[in-house]
What we know:
By secondary structure, this protein is α/β, with parallel strands linked by helices. It has one domain: Metal-dependent hydrolases (TIM Barrel), CATH 3.20.20.140. The chain has helices at 37-46, 63-73, 104-130, 137-141, 152-161, 168-176, 191-200, 216-222, 239-251, 280-291, and strands at 21-26, 49-54, 76-87, 90-97, 204-207, 229-233, 255-258. The chain has a 7-stranded mixed sheet. Helix 5 (152-161) crosses helix 6. The longest helix has 27 residues, at 104-130. Mean pLDDT is 90; it is low at 1-13.
Amino acid sequence: MITSDRNSADVVVRQSPNSAKIDFHTHTDSSDGALSAKDLIEKAAQAGITTLGICDHDTVSSLAEAEIISGEKGIKIVPGIEITSRYKRFQLHFLGYYFDYTDKKFLSRLDELRDARIHRAKRIIAKLNRIKIPLTFESVIEKVGEHDSVGRPHIANTMVEEGYAQTYDEVFHKYIGIGRPAYEANYPFPPEEAIGMVAAAGGLSFLAHPSHYVSEDLLHYLLKTGLDGIEVIHPSHSDEEIAFYTKFADENSLLKSGGSDFHGGLKNDDRNLGSYVISPEWVDKILSKLNN
């Protein structure tokens, strides 16, 4: 695994300020983002973004609205999703792009994943209760829509709002992060299935922010799963990591993507939107593979 010394607050514009800004990785309040699709698109337009990927966790409920609204702002929406997966002890995230988000089999699988998220949230809350934090499932779930995805960020936000922690990061570092007393592993969804469901709906799959958890050996394993590309540009990636993942992608005929992974709200990542962008040439290659 390539290590990084970059602080998440460090911001690097990866393109000329005068070029079209393309961000393939953002979130709305349909999963763990703070903004509605409408407000996210407004903010993206203000940041000069012309192409915006919306990749909520295990849900596509914001995409139809986003595609309608985006035309008014002159922004192209890339239909996306971030699917949580597991391989052995590793939690992996895959970004799916340009799939048919009305596909019935795809939506049925997402229903299963969202149900698993609910059960995980209940287990986390039960562990918090056992360490004398009286958080309730009801207080968390009231912030999540019927077709949206509940996750640890919702728990963290609620704990801060109810005074059980001072900051979002404190909740993860002290209570619900990996190895902490209220941590619960996610649903054991294999990489092959995550990638396969996107492919079956006509889309392409990219490994998200690999510096978080992925060794070079695991990267080579994932080459055998039908992976289409790697998220090279991400706020957590150092220049060294960007160079490494670019070289790895090129040497293994993988596509490249990237973006800000913008959430807003308590994550305090507003500066990232419009600052982590990819080149039109990368998008052209993605569309070329999609159309062939």
